[in-house]
Design brief:
The complex is a heterodimer. Chain A is an alpha+beta fold. Chain A is built from ten helices and 20 strands. In chain A, helix 3 packs across helix 8. Chain B has 15 helices and 18 strands. In chain B, strands 1, 2, 9, 10, 11, 12 and 18 form a seven-stranded mixed β-sheet that branches. A seven-stranded mixed β-sheet of chain B has the order 7-6-14-15-16-13-17, sandwiched between helices. Classes of the chains: A alpha+beta, B alpha/beta. At the A-B interface, helix 5 of A face helix 3 and helix 4 of B.
Chain lengths: 433, 532
């Protein structure tokens, strides 16, 4: 749109020999770190993209150059191959950079009363160094977001969400003596998921990792760097998340791969995280449901009862945001629900429209081919009335070359997640000393 | 006597849209205009040899997709450029750009307040909801309750049904939006003064309300009208016709010609032939009479009724009601020819939002002061300035490497407290605008090859636009929708049979470009169909 007078002309001789030390054919060529430095004070357009603190370490593992964007951050879609990464996740362990998640530190004398009013769940049982999946709603009972709430100390919590919610958190905090900070940029996160996840951490020198219970967390050290390890992660299996200083994170990433590579620990990208989440049946904010603040059409806003089978609402708690509205909503049947679907067909298909008895009844928002079920699975928002219909189907597109065929594939609601291993909640087998 | 199915008075954008729709509907149409070239308010002029730009308007804004498709304008050479939403430059040296991408736009807001970056999501939702709610109202003629027992009853029940379907929380939201001042409404979302000034300044342009005037918040919705559903979560985009408004005019002329219509320039209509309260045709300045089945006036409501008719021919009370329609000049236009590309050293290099325009504005208190200055008829001291450099999109508008700059100056009174504008006052306004431009683009003064300043009364004398009001009637809520141009005449049909108003003086006014013309044509065609 604007004449490119600021760009050097391509004929410029000097441009070509600016970096003689870089060999363009070396695939492990050093990347200029200045490209990825965080420069927050700079205007938006002086910086092309946001990158995670682990960007260079993760980029070094990429064999596919297949990138995507997650919360505005450059993120690998796949690093090697989704099939290989999936095999590692289910058979050994996979390591993912999930730093683009949004993290808030909530601390102060009133942190607990504030959170009690914010989220729908009872926080009475939340001890220090434990995590809880929480939901927060607008006054009319529609979901604004969900996330993982860690209790770091008596009066200090960390809320980890998919989308940003600072305006709502600050608006709800009026009158509470509480400090709310967005600490996303100062905290890197690694996700280590898979049956051998505990072994991988033990190999990296984390003592007594097997004793860490599901949703528990504690401080430890990885190669001498302090790290907060929690037994969380939506993979439906054993898994840990490592919360670490951004400067230390790339070293921890390399150290874990080096130490546990022999056990099959494989770096993986965002596609694997999405597939694992889909197999576990976890809806993602912004993809499978819209925050009530983003739902232009009011019918797109969801209640907790539409979204989760166990709706994470404790009416025993006397006061929380949306309680009165939710008490009314719990009595009526949801109009639409977010449900996992399994779709017939032996090869990956692309689809969105969900039909019941030949009529449009909903939309599949996340789709994927589950190697575990050897079938296409999806999370779909479907009219509650259509869920009982005998013939649920999706209109799928199958592409071959440049031609496309439209086919109708029968679908049904999954009654249990495609992957829900008992290991998820069990104590890992004793590890070697 | 020459006879036509329809005569359109004025070859402005709406007149041409009306004529093109009628011609496509199979009518024998004649467009008459007193100027030498078509375009009216959208006309393009050469301000120095080789430098062309829209003379009276900024040059942004395109026809709605519905009119473009109905008239098949792409086949007649019309192309659009979609640009980012523009940049506000504030006196403290900061700037706020609008981006269509939600992530990038929220990151831009986060430079001022991370909290406001999240509040944007809710603001955008509420703006889009309001714009969607307005959609059906803007697509056709304004809804007035029809006469007759059954029609009236059905319309009333339908209205009651729709009102009953609105949830109580939404009623509160609607009330806030339609009654609050802009500044109070924005306080409900944002904390950053920069963010509020950026949004308010865009909404203040071309309006007659200040940021603290009641009902001003409703103006914030305007840019969201027509925003597509698959938008990316950021600010609404700016739609620019490739080649400026003149390209719209050329495409519309081509449609009229292709369907057998005629446009006659330098033909001023001075009178309307009227017999038994039925309009029969028009009389030209040279005495020529042209008979017409329908006469559509693209002139503003005051000129249409008060200067084309003998007042004794008009129904009782009409003269008084038309006289009371408020039309106020509020903008001046400054056109510059630049010998070189202007620099914007304080904006990030390559910022795509510059393409959507630059706005030089103060914070909300300064905007309010500019508004009260206008109300008190004080010569502008610190006006809002909306700048577009059309040659960024279309290099043919200026000689190679050179540019034309189009600036709309907001809050310029039609007459000053001391009387008419003097030559010195006019020069001072031009100097003020150039000085303000120099603050964001140092050295621009030395690149100016030609400069012209058009005050509201210049618009009135050159275009015949009462008061130089580019909105064709104040756009406050009491003069919008079913009340536009005045209560009792919501739409293009006038109390006089066969006489229609196709200028933005009629619904939907300046909210939808070409909307008034399309409405008038639709009403003429449906009336003819009924008569068989």
């Amino acid at each position: 749109m604007i004449p490119d007078t600021l760009l050097p002309s391509p004929q410029d001789e000097e441009v070509e020999n600016l970096h003689p030390e870089i060999d363009p054919l070396d695939e492990r060529a050093a990347v200029d770190p200045a490209l990825f430095e965080d420069m927050r004070a700079e205007p938006v357009f002086a910086r092309a993209v946001l990158t995670s603190p682990l960007h260079l370490a993760v980029a070094a593992e990429s064999r596919t150059n297949n990138w995507t964007v997650w919360n505005g951050f450059t993120t690998p879609a796949t690093l090697t191959d989704l099939g290989d990464e999936y095999r590692a996740l289910r058979g050994a362990a996979a390591l993912m950079d999930i730093s683009p998640l949004v993290k808030y530190r909530i601390a102060g004398r009133d942190a607990r009363p504030f959170l009690d009013r914010l989220v729908t769940r009872d926080l009475g049982a939340l001890e220090v160094d434990r995590a809880l999946h929480v939901v927060f709603c607008e006054g009319n009972g529609f979901v604004l977001g969900d996330g993982l709430l860690f209790r770091l100390d008596d009066d200090e919590y960390r809320l980890v969400t998919e989308e940003t919610h600072l305006a709502w958190l600050l608006d709800s905090a009026v009158g509470f003596r509480v400090r709310i900070e967005d600490v996303s940029a100062t905290l890197a996160v690694l996700s280590l998921q898979g049956p051998l996840a505990a072994l991988c951490l033990a190999e990296a020198g984390v003592a007594n990792i097997a004793e860490l219970l599901p949703f528990a967390a504690r401080w430890t050290e990885i190669a001498g760097m302090p790290a907060y390890v929690s037994r969380t992660g939506a993979s439906g299996d054993l898994g840990y998340e490592i919360w670490i200083d951004p400067d230390d994170a790339p070293h921890a990433w390399r150290f874990l791969l080096e130490k546990s590579g022999p056990y099959g620990l494989t770096p993986a990208g965002f596609d694997l995280r999405e597939l694992a989440r889909l197999e576990t049946g976890f809806p993602r904010a912004g993809k499978d449901y819209l925050s009530a603040f983003a739902a232009i059409d009011a019918a797109d806003a969801r209640t907790p009862f539409d979204l989760w089978v166990e709706p994470l609402v404790d009416f025993g708690k006397p006061l929380f945001n949306g309680r009165e509205a939710l008490r009314r909503l719990v009595l009526v049947e949801p109009r639409r629900r977010v449900v996992p679907l399994v779709v017939d067909g032996l090869e990956p298909a692309r689809f969105a429209a969900v039909h019941a008895n030949g009529r449009l009844a909903g939309t599949a928002t996340s789709i994927g081919f589950s190697p575990a079920l050897a079938a296409n699975i999806a999370l779909a928002t479907v009219d509650a009335a259509a869920l009982a219909a005998s013939d649920l189907a999706v209109r799928a597109e199958r592409r071959e070359g440049v031609s496309v065929r439209e086919i109708v594939l029968p679908a049904r609601v999954l009654t249990e997640p495609a992957w829900n291993n008992p290991r998820r909640l069990a104590i890992p087998a004793p590890l070697k000393a | 006597m020459e006879r036509r199915d329809a005569v359109v008075i004025g070859a402005g954008l709406n007149g041409l849209v009306a004529a093109a729709s009628l011609a496509r509907g199979g009518l024998d149409v004649l467009v008459l205009d007193r100027a030498a070239a078509p375009g009216g308010v959208s006309a393009e002029r050469e301000i120095a040899p080789g430098f062309r730009l829209p003379r009276y308007t900024l040059g942004s804004g395109g026809l709605p997709a519905r009119i473009v498709a109905d008239l098949d304008l792409p086949r007649h050479g019309l192309r659009f450029v979609r640009a980012e939403g523009g940049v506000s430059c504030l006196p403290d040296g900061s700037y706020h750009a609008s981006y269509r991408d939600g992530v990038v736009h929220r990151r831009e807001i986060a430079r001022f307040s991370r909290r406001d970056a999240d509040a944007w999501t809710r603001y955008r939702r509420d703006m889009l909801r309001a714009a969607r709610g307005l959609g059906p109202l803007l697509e056709g003629p304004a809804r007035t309750i029809p006469k007759g027992l059954f029609g009236g009853l059905r319309a009333r029940l339908g209205l009651a049904d729709r009102i009953a379907a609105i949830a109580p929380e939404d009623v509160a939201d609607m009330l806030r939006l339609w009654t609050l001042p802009m500044s109070d409404f924005l306080d409900g979302y944002f904390e950053s003064d920069v963010v509020k000034a950026h949004l308010a300044s865009a909404a203040l342009m071309r309006g007659t309300l200040g940021p603290c005037s009641p009902t001003g918040a409703s103006r914030l919705v305007a840019p969201w009208i027509g925003e597509p559903g698959d938008a990316m979560g950021g600010a609404p985009e700016t739609l620019l016709p490739h080649g400026g408004p003149a390209a719209l005019v050329r495409a519309l002329m081509s449609v009229i010609e292709a369907h057998g219509g005629q446009v006659r320039m330098e033909a001023e209509v001075t009178d309307i032939l009227i017999k038994d309260k039925v309009v029969r045709g028009v009389v030209l300045a040279n005495g020529e009479e042209i008979g017409a089945g329908s006469v559509l006036s693209g002139l503003d409501v005051k000129r249409s009724f008060l200067s084309l008719f003998q007042w004794k021919d008009l129904p009782e009370g009409l003269v008084e009601r038309v006289g009371r329609v408020r039309m106020k000049g509020v903008t001046a236009k400054v056109n510059l020819a630049l010998g070189a590309m202007p620099d914007f050293p304080y904006l990030p290099p390559g910022c795509p939002s510059v393409a959507g325009g630059l706005r030089l504005t103060g914070f909300i208190p300064a905007q309010e002061r500019a508004f009260t200055d206008w109300r008190d008829r004080i010569p502008p001291r610190d006006p809002l300035i909306d700048v577009l450099i059309p040659s960024f999109h279309d290099a043919t508008l200026a000689p190679a490497g050179m540019h034309v700059l189009s600036a709309l100056v907001q809050f310029v009174p039609e007459t000053l407290h001391e009387g008419a504008w003097s030559g010195e006052r006019r020069d001072a306004l031009g100097d003020l605008v150039i000085a303000r431009l120099g603050e964001i683009s140092p050295g621009i003064e030395s690149r100016i090859l030609a400069c012209e300043v058009l005050l509201p009364h210049d618009l009135e004398s050159e275009l015949g636009l009462t008061g130089g009001d580019l909105a064709y009637g104040e756009t406050t809520l009491d003069q919008m929708f079913a009340n536009r141009p005045f209560p009792g005449m919501g739409g293009a049909e006038t109390p006089l049979r066969n006489f229609y108003l196709c200028s933005p003086s009629a619904h939907p006014g300046p909210l939808v470009m070409g909307g008034a013309g399309a409405n008038a044509a639709a009403q003429v065609l449906s009336r003819r169909r009924k008569r068989g």
